[in-house]
Design goal:
Blueprint (H helix, E strand, L loop, with lengths): L7 E2 L4 E2 L3 H13 L4 E4 L2 H9 L9 E5 L3 E11 L4 H20 L2 E13 L17
Family: Belongs to the asp23 family.
Pfam families: Asp23 (PF03780)
Protein name: Asp23/Gls24 family envelope stress response protein
């Protein structure tokens, strides 16, 4: 759910940043972090992808005010990465990206880890296949 941002008035007119813009920035900032396998977007995001539409804001919810923003992201972590470290990197990258691109102050970034993704073949590295019994 997005909350509509208020207009900012300048000498030349008004500036409004749509919440969808913040969602896209947060989504792109999230997937560029090492250890993120993807976004977890629920039913709406899944249907959009089934229809062939790339949804870079999938799994992102924002609340945008006139000068501040709060972000929630739902992610899938790659197996083998430290979840707290990856989540912290996601928080920092989202905050940096939104503040740099919009001038908004990011007051909160909540990272929700919904799943762990294995490699495409489903195998776990260093798996020991020795027989325990003969």
């Amino acid at each position: 759910m997005s909350i509509i941002a208020e207009y900012e008035k300048t000498d030349m007119g008004t500036i409004q940043i749509a919440p969808e813009v913040i969602e896209v920035i947060a989504g792109l900032a999230t997937v560029e972090v090492d250890g993120i396998a993807g976004m977890s977007g629920g039913l709406a995001g899944g249907i959009a992808e089934l229809l062939g539409k790339k949804n870079v804001a999938k799994g992102v919810k924002v609340e945008v005010g006139q000068r501040e923003a709060a972000v929630d992201v739902s992610v899938i972590i790659q197996y083998g990465h430290k979840i707290p470290e990856v989540a912290n990197n996601v928080q920092e990258n989202i905050k940096r990206s939104i503040e740099m691109m919009t001038g908004l102050s990011v007051v909160e970034v909540n990272v929700h880890v919904h799943d762990v993704h294995l490699k495409p073949d489903g195998k776990v590295e260093n798996e020991d296949h020795t027989k325990r019994v003969n």
